[in-house]
């Protein structure tokens, strides 16, 4: 079955060849009555198509029809590839197509946003406005209300290809390390992380909630003797935080594994997995990263071949040394995390690092206390550019201690009875972690809002589209 030639494949090598291409009419411009130009866009590639009156192929009527096409309509063009003597401005391809036939496959109605304007960087917008150009700044809500149009910009194509690649590398790396993929239930009798951030629902007359994390079930898979597992799946949080980094639904990258002597075995996996993700993105997503950077300029992530590990205590001390007082047995707030990120960058030259041995009091009930000092825990958080992307720990595998910890953290034991039972039949020592896919992509690309890396974001104010 024949398929159209890709717009991105139109080069000098095809000069004088007849091609069939399909794309969207990005712009349509008539020059007098005998000639029209259509810039056709397919994904991130654009080419200029020239419609000129010609005795046996193109009539005046045809030129008029083309001039009346609406932007973003899907167009089929048949024509000859030509190489103009001057540089073509404003298209990615340096050839033109001399149109012989043109069909409108699907017609677009008038657009609520102009894709070209939506694709400009802040600096380009400023420049255009100063030059007196008429353009409408497309704000985030308008973008998200019209997300399927907004997704047509090169930066957005880049973001979601990068996101896809993160998932692929995550899966491939873990498969090669003897993990296998599981799918845990998303409707559960209770919460897993404690706290109120859970969506409640009625499950055939029983109180239930949407999975706040695959936490309990991934651990139960380890009790089931699966050894090493991972999951890529939806996670639901009834957030009330209206911030740049909280969603009510996000994609969790979760890992759980048996350990033999120390929770650093889990941190070793985090280290090698994420360095592999960053290396591979830098190698294979150069074009996508450039497309994102053209609209949202950012510096490439600075990271070390072996990920820096600091203890929570060391982090607190670094903050103290510069006059930032934090509770040494509390959690770090967003501001302190940011500040520590800066200090770590200055001292160690990395924007990616692990902070471990957190105070037990700020960690979920399933976290293993440190055996030399139970005020601390065998746990860690991981940061990119001063913001958390991962939390993980060794888990309590001793049923008596697990029950005690759950009770101390105010968990209703009835809602986790099957989980507790799973440990009574002997569970191996184990640990794991969870990362948020949208946060990983946001922070790797230095973006300022998680809504940019969620395809159709769900936040406290948004349930559609
Ligand atoms: O820190 P969290 O809540 O940890 C857990 O869910 C544990 N069960 C993980 C484990 O295996 N111990 O969430 C893990 C990660 C965070 O580091 C963050 O990247 C992301 O999930 N995350 C969110 N992303 C977007 N919106 C939110 N509201 C998020 N809450 C957490």
Automatic annotation (TrEMBL):
Enzyme class: ligase
Compartments where located: Cytoplasm
The keyword ATP-binding belongs to this UniProt entry's keyword annotation: yes
Domain Aminoacyl-transfer RNA synthetases class-II family profile: 160-457
InterPro entries to which the protein is assigned, alphabetical: Aa-tRNA-synt_II, aa-tRNA-synth_II, aa-tRNA-synth_II/BPL/LPL, Asp-tRNA_synthase_2, Asp/Asn-tRNA-synth_IIb, NA-bd_OB-fold
PROSITE patterns xref list: AA_TRNA_LIGASE_II (PS50862)
Annotated catalysed reactions: tRNA(Asp) + L-aspartate + ATP = L-aspartyl-tRNA(Asp) + AMP + diphosphate
GO CC terms: aminoacyl-tRNA synthetase multienzyme complex; cytosol
GO molecular function: aspartate-tRNA ligase activity; ATP binding; RNA binding
Enzyme Commission (EC) number: 6.1.1.12
UniProt keyword terms in alphabetical order: Aminoacyl-tRNA synthetase, ATP-binding, Cytoplasm, Ligase, Nucleotide-binding, Protein biosynthesis
One biological process term in Gene Ontology: aspartyl-tRNA aminoacylation
Record carries keyword DNA-binding: no
Pfam family, one: tRNA-synt_2
Source taxon at top rank: Eukaryota
Similarity field: Belongs to the class-II aminoacyl-tRNA synthetase family. Type 2 subfamily.
Name of the protein this chain belongs to: aspartate--tRNA ligase
Organism in which the protein naturally occurs: Prunus yedoensis var. nudiflora
């Amino acid at each position: 079955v024949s398929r159209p030639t890709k717009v991105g494949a139109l080069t000098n090598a095809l000069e004088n060849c007849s091609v069939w291409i399909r794309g969207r009419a990005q712009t349509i411009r008539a020059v007098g009555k005998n000639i029209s130009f259509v810039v056709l866009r397919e994904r991130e590639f654009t080419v200029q198509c020239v419609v000129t009156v010609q005795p046996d192929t193109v009539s005046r009527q045809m030129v008029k029809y083309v001039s009346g096409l609406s932007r973003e309509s899907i167009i089929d063009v048949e024509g000859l590839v030509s190489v103009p003597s001057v540089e073509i401005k404003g298209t990615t391809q340096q050839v033109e197509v001399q149109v012989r036939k043109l069909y409108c496959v699907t017609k677009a109605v008038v657009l609520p946003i102009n894709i070209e304007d939506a694709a400009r960087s802040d600096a380009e917008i400023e420049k255009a406005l100063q030059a007196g150009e008429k353009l409408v700044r497309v704000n985030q809500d308008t973008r998200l209300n019209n997300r399927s149009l907004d997704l047509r910009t090169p930066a957005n194509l880049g973001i979601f290809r990068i996101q896809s690649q993160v998932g692929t590398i995550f899966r491939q790396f873990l498969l090669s390390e003897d993990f296998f993929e599981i799918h845990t239930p998303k409707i559960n009798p209770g919460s897993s992380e404690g706290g109120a951030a859970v969506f409640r629902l009625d499950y055939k007359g029983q109180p239930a909630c949407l999975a706040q994390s695959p936490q309990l079930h991934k651990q139960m898979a380890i009790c089931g003797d699966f050894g090493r597992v991972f999951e890529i799946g939806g996670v639901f949080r009834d957030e009330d935080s209206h911030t740049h980094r909280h969603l009510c639904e996000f994609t969790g990258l979760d890992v759980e594994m048996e350990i033999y002597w120390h929770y650093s075995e889990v941190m070793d996996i985090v280290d090698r997995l994420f360095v592999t993700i960053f290396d591979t993105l830098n190698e294979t997503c150069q074009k996508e990263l450039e497309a994102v950077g053209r609209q949202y300029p950012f510096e490439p992530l600075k990271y070390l071949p072996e990920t820096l590990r600091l203890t929570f205590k060391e982090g607190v001390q670094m903050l103290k040394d510069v006059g930032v007082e934090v509770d040494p047995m509390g959690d770090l707030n967003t501001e302190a995390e940011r500040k520590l990120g800066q200090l770590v960058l200055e001292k160690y030259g990395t924007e990616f690092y692990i902070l471990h041995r957190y105070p037990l009091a700020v960690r979920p009930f399933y976290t293993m206390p440190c055996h030399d000092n139970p005020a601390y825990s065998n746990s860690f958080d991981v940061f990119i550019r001063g913001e958390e992307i991962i939390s993980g720990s060794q888990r309590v595998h001793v049923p008596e201690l697990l029950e005690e910890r759950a009770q101390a953290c105010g968990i209703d034991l009835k809602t986790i009875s099957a989980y507790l039972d799973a440990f009574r039949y002997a569970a191996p020592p184990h640990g794991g972690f969870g990362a948020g896919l949208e946060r990983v992509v946001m922070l790797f690309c230095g973006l300022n809002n998680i809504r940019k890396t969620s395809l159709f974001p769900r936040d406290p104010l948004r349930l559609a589209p």
